[in-house]
Amino acid sequence: MQKLVYFVFSLLALIPLPVLQGIGSILGRLGFYFATSERERTTKNLHFSKIAANDQQAEKLVKSIFAETAKSGLELSIAWTRSSKHIVSLFKEVHGWEHIEEAIANKHGLLLITPHLGNYDLAGRYLSEKLPFPLTAMYRPPKISWLESIMNNGRVRDNGYTAPANMQGVKQVVRALKNKEATIILPDQVPGEGEGVWANFFDRPAYTMTLASRLAIMPNVTALFFCGERLPYGRGFALHIAPLTGTLTGNREHDAQIINNNVEEWVKRFPSQYLFGYNRYKKRKNIPLP
Q: Average pLDDT, stretch 137-147?
């Protein structure tokens, strides 16, 4: 099965990007009508965000979200099988690279934070190719073990490394930051029990990891948010980089809220490319709501 999936991914990756994204758009639109539970969760989470002004606009945006999500899925074939050089060529715009250069000049470790927004796999590959030192991306291992092998074969190459979302992985990214290297973390993944705090996300309590803010306040670390925006009409991608806004104090609840506030602002910039179908408001059995 692993070899078959890799072969299919390799074939998909050879399809021109505009065509591949067109296929994704069609699949996503079909998914809107057939994936009932996913549509309901996406619609509900979008409603919580108050981004859509009315029901008509919300339905249109949900359809776009399904299309963009399907594109992201197909684009994994590129991220995991095509060369770094090819992936770099897909990025037509880069905004905010000066923040990277400033951190390098200051001899800081780089904490690169991205939510489930745009294509973070491709953006991560671009970053690992352009940075003058290794980049370690933290990830949550998939439930299908052989899929993890395909994923890591695509991510662990050139200057890129991965760290599982467990204690061993945390030690790995801390070590990378202390060595003045770069790490990537997704701050809107729901953490395990005891690994987060309740903080509002679009005015609703969401169990939020504390790891991102704990890494951000390490000495000699620069925390930057980034997003790999998908440009329209198959034109490629734009990389956006900006400093984390707000003051982190070391208080877990306060700092988790700062991280969520930043995520909200990025989602508002590119709402159709955010994974609203993700169960961000998942309840924790042994952790009561505030």
A: 85
Domain segments of the chain as ranges: 84-273
Q: What is the pLDDT of residues 180-223, one digit of tens each?
A: 999 999 999 999 888 999 999 999 999 999 999 999 999 999 99
> What's the pTM value of the predicted model, to 2 decimals?
0.95
What pLDDT does residue 154 have? 85
Strands (DSSP E) along the chain, which ranges? Answer: 91-95, 109-113, 135-139, 160-164, 182-185, 196-201, 204-209, 221-230, 237-243
Residue 206 CA to residue 261 CA, distance in Å, equals 12
3-state secondary structure of 233: helix
| CB 129 within 8 Å of CB 84 | yes
CB under 8 A, 24+ apart: contacts of 261-264: 262/113, 262/187, 262/225, 263/115, 263/187, 263/188, 263/201, 264/49, 264/201, 264/202
The one-character DSSP state at 232 is G
